[in-house]
Every structure is written in structure tokens, then in C-alpha cells.
Specification:
Layout: H1 12-29, H2 32-51
Length: 63
Amino acid sequence: MTSTASLSVESIEAHIARDCEELTKAEASGDQARARHYAKALQWLKICRTHHPGDHKDTAYWL
């Protein structure tokens, strides 16, 4: 597991793309818990992007 301190700052679009890939992998492997995690994370990221359309910073790292 990656610690928050070692995560690089990326755009919200890059984070969404990465989480989409992880969701696809989790679904393909049958890992339902991981798939639910990424589905919820994606939902939150997409809401953030909708509410701040011109802001490309990834606010997930602010938490």
C-alpha cells in the first residue's frame, strides 16, 4: 500500500484515468471490495471535477 506522503501531485483527470484502470482490474479479478472502493472514489472525483470544471488540481490529496 502506498503512503499518502509518497503520492505525487497529479491532475484530477490523471487520477480519474488511473482509478478507472484499477476499477477495471478489480472487476476482472472478481475483487468486489476493491471494485466498490474505486467506484466510490471515481464518483467523488467526478463530482469534484463537475463542481470545479476549470481546476485541474487533484483535491483528493488535500484530505
